[in-house]
Prior knowledge:
single chain, mainly alpha, Cytochrome Bc1 Complex, Chain D, domain 2, 0% strand, globular, binds heme C
Amino acid sequence: MHGSTWLFPLFALAPFALARAATVPPTPPAQLGLCAACHGEDGHARIPGAPNLAGQPYAYLLQALHAYRNGERKVPVMRAAAGPLTEQDMQALAHWFAAQSPCKPGPAEAP
Ligand code: HEC
């Protein structure tokens, strides 16, 4: 008579799984540490010569990572940085940097 009650826990959990998949970038990607030393966690460059990534379009950032990895853009440091990334890593990083504010006042590291 109560043969279908076992299904209940599955239905109860489904909304959480869906909500998580739909969330865009609020958690920093796992590989962010590989980039932060040069580009900053928030996409504001930390070293001379590294571009700001904050607020650049997702598609542009992803395409740039592909270009470094396949040697189309010949920049050894970026080729090394992009080399170990999976496609999912690159998408997560491109989402993250695209979502950062491009004109945030600089962090308190003025000279
Ligand atoms: C050792 C320093 C260094 C590290 C680490 C590094 N980058 Fe870079 N990145 C650079 C430099 C320098 C450039 C500019 C290269 C050029 O002139 O094309 C660059 C360029 C880029 C660009 C192109 C930006 C543009 O405006 O065209 C993207 C996207 C990028 N990096 C993403 C990343 C990501 C994602 C990571 C981490 C996986 C990373 N970088 C790690 C130094 C670094």
